[in-house]
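Need tokens for this chain, all 373 residues.
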Amino acid sequence: RDGDPHRHNGLGCRTAVANVESVIHPAATDQGFPTQAAWDQFLIALDGTPNKSRLGANAILGCSLAFARAVAARDRRPLYETFCELASNPPLRLPRLSVNLFSGGKHAGGQVPIQDVLLVPVSPTTIDDSLTMICEIYRVAAEWCHTSFGMRLLTADEGGLSPPVANSEALFEAGREAIANAGLSRDVRLAVDVAASHFESAGEYRFDGRVLSGDKMVERLQRWVGEFDLLSVEDGLGQDDWPHWTHFRERVSGRSLVIGDDLLCTNPARIRRAIEARAADTLLLKVNQIGTLTEAAEANRLAREAGWSVVISARSGETEDDWLADLAVGWSGDFIKVGSVTQSERLAKYNRLLEIERESGLTIPAWNAPAPL
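Here are the structure tokens for all 373 residues:
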């Protein structure tokens, strides 16, 4: 971000655009790049810093994606087939949806500390049927918000509802009730993105008016998994609280997926450490955390070779570009997480999945509970 307080409150992106137009463009003009990897390595070398601080990961990622789109256009094929080639696999399946229902934390002004309670359809084998179920549950939950709190339809950054409940568990209870009232208890399960790094400090968790130790936080998460039948728990502990990540995964292995986002940052070094420590069993893959498609493909490969699941994820600052849907199909993502069903920058990805579903004939695989790793 530009950091200029007089323009978009510091959130402008002119510096990133200038890096594309005035640095990357002239450096690449009149050169040829035979592969995505060659192009991405050129971008990494042009930046020349360990963390892409000169040009910025978003400027670099935009150019990395532009190359993939150019290859797909040249070959007259859908973008997901180009992504398949990068991952060295044919298109196998559609991803299962993981969709925001309720939001708190930084996404919703912090009325509760947890970031998102999500819906995961487990019975449907199509995107169409999955979205139909999600929209019905969302409608029921929105009516509950109006009846319980007299609130109009207020949504968080990624489209989740954000009712002023007293504590985090009230969101799980409301989610479970909305699923039941929609008649979909056998079809849809809850999941959670805790985003614990936002309320953890020095190994302590300031949570719902209490200060919890790492051990107590693990106990709380384990109880949620059992009480609310959570399909997955994302970032349940602080990003550097490695011992308690391992402890938690041991406690819930085979019952709930343990997803690393802040823990892993789509960074191969952190993924390798998590594999060795048995700290997680699912990678939340965000390409702009690492910067190029080639580097993200390496992170995806490491997770797959370890027997992990992979969630292809968007970010809060999304646009209506729908490339992430193609990536989720091309890399055979187990899940896709792009937000709720109310905002156009989110719906663009769901609409693209519907297009791919119709064009390709691919389906969502039958759900099998995660096996212990």
